[in-house]
Amino acid sequence: MAEDGKPTELRFEEIYSKYGVLGLELSPKAKSLVGKPVRVLGFIAPPLKAEAAFFVLTRAAATVCPFCSSDADWPVDIMVVYPRNKGQALHSTAPMAITGQLELGSKTDRETGFVSQVRIVDAEMQKLR
Questions:
Q1: Which residues pair with 33 in a beta bridge?
Q2: Which of 19, 26, 67, 68 has a beta carbon 3.0–4.6 Å from 73's, enabling a disulfide?
């Protein structure tokens, strides 16, 4: 949390420090924010499954599913969001501000089998326009 009591702003380009043939390396900033409240700006991707308990946030607006089935192919510009209100599935093309607790590391969603590397849990959403 920032000194002013607000969540720390985290941009997609700040999550990883290295990209290469050996994979992705999480940045020192991202690692320091694990378990802490963060705020990320992005766009909601089309749903993987309508009744899923999560949605995917992307850096840019997406018209098709932007993710893969393996964490080995994990794109650097997406993250999984688990809303505080489980039934709150947003389908919006507007930019969003997502605030919640940051989680890092490979995790498989039990219901869908979707594998993620970066997650925001207990999230609250706010449309920006």
A1: none
A2: 68
Model pTM?
A: 0.83
Rounded Cα distance between 114 and 52, Å, is 10
The count of other CB atoms within 10 Å of the CB of residue 11 is 12
Query: How many other CB atoms are found less than 10 A from the CB of residue 96?
Result: 21
Domain ranges across the chain: 8-127
Q: What is the model's pLDDT at position 71? A: 45
What is the CB neighbour count within 10 angstroms for residue 73?
9
Q: With CA atoms as reference, report the closest residue to 125 among 63, 11, 58, 39.
A: 39
Q: Which conformational region is residue 11 in: left (phi greater than 0), alpha (psi within -120 to 50 degrees), or beta?
A: beta
Amino acid 91: pLDDT:
66
Tell me the fold of 8-127.
OB fold (Dihydrolipoamide Acetyltransferase, E2P) (2.40.50)
Q: Which residues pair with 44 in a beta bridge?
A: 57
